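Long-time lurker. I teach an intro course on protein structure, and each term I like to show students one example going from raw sequence to a predicted 3D structure in token notation. This year I'd like something fresh instead of my usual example. Would anyone be willing to generate the tokens for the chain below so I can use it in lecture? Attribution to the forum is fine with me.
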Amino acid sequence: MAVTIVDDQRRKTVEQHYGPLGPHTVELTDPVIVAADDGFELTGILALPVGVAKVPAVLIRTPYNPASFPPEVTAFFLGEVIAWASHGYACLVQSTRTSTSYFDEAADGAATVRWIERQPWFNGALGLTGASYHAFSSWATASTRPTSLKAIATAMYSTDRVSSWYPGGGFALELALSWTAMQQAEGTRVDQNPYNRLPLNEADVAATGSKLDFYQERLAHDGGDPHWRPLDYSALLDDPPAPVLHIGGWYDYHRTYSWQDFERLTKSGSSLPHRFVIGPWAHAALDSRISMAERLAWFNTHVRGDGSARSGVLRYYRTGAEPGWVECADWREPGTTTFHVAAAGRLVDTPDDAFSRVEWTYDPADPTPSVAMAILDVGDVGGVWDSGPLEQRPDVCAFTSEPLSEPMDLAGRVRAATTFCSDAVSADLFLRLLDVHEDGQVRSVVDGFLRITDAGLADGVPVEIDLGPAGHRFAPGHRLRLLVASGAHPYHNRNLGNGEPTATATSLREAHQAIVTPLTLTLPTEFPAS
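-- Reply from a regular --
Happy to contribute to a lecture. Here you go:
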């Protein structure tokens, strides 16, 4: 066990990522060993402010081993620990058993909290924090309701670990294979070819040369399988164990489920404070300075008890025209504006009596690609781009409004409904709302996906699609465009059309799809006064 003092040069490096540090000199102890209930040794690094007898604590539990990172990544990773200690908190960052030890996180987190509660430097007030997997492990620990827990501050993940793996009932192929390869195959990056491999339970070998047990586990158990039930902590939101802050991103693959958490907290009736911040970020592009400032204010108020947290329940970055941050003192379900798919590729604000069914053919041998969608990295999301190559595909239908005469603001969840039919046993519906600029280029606003396996598909099945939340302003002169397709591969795995198990299916079936009643697009545009 080594004890070191963080020098001025390292502090300056941390400040570049996390903003101004606090006044305290920081002492690092590495390693710190905590025994789990079964005797397994959990290893961590502890940062303490020097010269303070009793301090509150922050716990971060991570599957990412800093020892395996290059120096510059390690500096960033440990920077948060140093930042918390500089502001007067003890901060323990602890490695989980493995990169996929999901089912152990609640018990191991509880054992670690009990260890913290026994330390002579602990003042009895604890905060749980972290992004992505760290957010999941925070909720797993919170589910044990430690008496010392005073606040939760998470980012880029919802309370349900499983929902993003099976969005809309499909399989998140790109996420499952790329993330598992990075974690279980020494950082292997997956190129396009393994995503096209059939059956999918051989794609991990095609990508990495070996079977990846967690990828196989995801294929073996779909989103509704009771196997995953212990990883769903969303019921905690009905009676939260502590004040909750969550930070999300408009381009994060978990945005829909994080927003559902926010709505559930808002409707819970709990007297405990909660706050949601959502910015223009993809999963791995969270602004660490904004995140640290928000979480520090939250913990100073609710853990240390001497701060002034932001008072609004929602802060979001409005994208599109006149971008910038918007603060909402409270949140209630907004009123809506409805658009309708109409004949001749139009999107109109009143139903079109001349509408007839819209048909297209989906060929899984040439699946509709996922364009301007990001799993972990920033990719090409968030900016203006040319969607012509996508819209010109025969398996994509586009519906466009007239130019807007005045600005249109969205803030809330976007939904769509229609009657969908297919001659396949199983078929997908993918929708994307675009902001069309006057020069014809577009900006993605939201998208949604639904997999339908229903005996009545041939006759038509009523469907509703959640496109997730948006905070966006359409400028005057811009138009709305709705794209309708049956896939976005490899973000969502392609539906082969025969209803066979996802893991082993190999038979491809061309599917003839149709919208048989006018599709309605419901936009959150009318906001109650705060």
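Some talking points for your students: The chain has a mean pLDDT of 93. The longest strand covers residues 408-422.
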